[in-house]
Amino acid sequence: MKQTPKCTLITGAASGIGLATAKRFAAEGHALVLVDQNAESLAAAASAMPEGTQVLICAAKVTEPDAVNDCLKQAVARFGGIDGLVTSAGIVKACNSLEVSPEDFRSQMDVNVTGSWLFAQGVAKDMVRCGVSGSIVMIGSVYGASGAPMRAAYCASKGAIHNLTESLAVEWGPLGIRVNTVAPTGVRTPMVQAMMDAGTYDTKGVKARTPLGRLAEPDEVANACWFLASDQATMITGTVLRVDGGWLANGYTFT
Predict the structure, then answer these.
(1) What is the pTM of this model?
(2) Catalytic residues, which ones?
(3) How confident is the model over 20-53, as pLDDT tens digits?
């Protein structure tokens, strides 16, 4: 039975953490299934992979079960099966919790949690079908283990991801499927940059609280995803791996 994934599906693959993760796995010789809702950006991401990388792109919304199932069918038809999954698709909308709309709360839960769940369940079914000892890596957050103003829905969604990881690791471990989460601090991605530009991301505050004094880079998160998926982590499951520069270890704010 295989231990290292050879075909990895990555959601949110058109930019940020997802794109960096795709490049990292491609560098290890993986075939890739890249999923994102933006077809044009997805095509650009595919063209950015190392020469010779086998790539299938699927433009789809991760919240739509039919679209998810179609992506999985295409992946199986092209590569015979899926050995690994990284669920990187995610959104955040900063808003005063007294004013956040039901629609905005629901959309963050749907993309961040339901989208991860739909792909995890679908990929796990295929792993069982193929008898593969596979790996699933979800993207959590330091906010999955701590609160933050203007982030009620996002914090709730990432806390759910952390708990979903543990639950699936317990249930799917006997099937040979490992499930882990990478929990980064703020990462220098287009999504975070847009929040900086809008004045809804406290970069100075994040750096002040972080002992290493900076945001994470997408490649640093991608490296953690690769480690958890690789043969170097075959006894690791149900773990939330912090890539946070010491954020959660810090009990006070530096001055």
Answers:
(1) 0.94
(2) 154
(3) 999 999 999 999 999 999 999 999 999 999 999 9
